[in-house]
Amino acid sequence: MSQLKWFKSSFSEASGNNCVEVAATPDGVALRESDAPAEVLTTSRVALQALILSAQAKLLAQRGSDR
């Protein structure tokens, strides 16, 4: 997985050692934590999208109930 082009959020710390990095793979998506780059989790694009959409929906619901 060393050939992958890793991306991290623009919200990451300046040192870059406290973030999740994402890379596209031929079969889906690879995820790793910047302070443990040898440990890589792989998943499908559909599964990652479902996770993100679910987290966004939960956040929006929480914000709505705070009003």
From TrEMBL:
Name used for this protein in its record: DUF397 domain-containing protein
Pfam families membership: DUF397
Domain DUF397: 4-55
Domain of life: Bacteria
Annotated InterPro entries: DUF397
